[in-house]
Amino acid sequence: MEINKEIYQDGDKEHRDSFWYEGHIATFSMIDKERNTRNVYIYAEGDIRIYNKRTGNLVYDGKERNEGFERLPNGLKTDKDLAKLEDLDYEWGNNNWFSFEYDINGGIRHDFLDDFCHEYDSAIERAEIALKDEHFWKQLKEI
Fold first, then answer.
1. N or C terminus of the chain: which is more exposed, having fewer CB within 10 Å?
2. CA-to-CA distance for 9 and 24, rounded, in angstroms?
3. How would you list the strands of the sheet with 23-31, edge to edge?
4. Cα angle at 28 between 27 and 33, to 5 degrees?
């Protein structure tokens, strides 16, 4: 069974974290043995808020605010910069994530609250695995 991949937002090696993405990331589909079309949709969603621990100011919520990332000499550009935030007295108030929706033949979309991840590669891999999981799709038909 061949997987059709429509990638709307490509990932790169310096931007694996969900922080860098928003909206519809990809749609994966395949036709199963019963000739049903299985679809998995990947989205980046959730509000992002980062605060300066010293001042309490909001410094990021989709764009820089107040003093911004003044302690990051080159700004916030890669996953390596994200990893430095807490050491530089910033704290996450909210973060986003990759979520998944599933449907059969374009019918009702299902999502599950515990079905999310934060890394681009993990999201892509999870969609591919889900498409091939016969037990999962059998259960989904019963919902």
1. C
2. 8
3. 4-7, 23-31, 37-45, 97-104, 116-117
4. 145
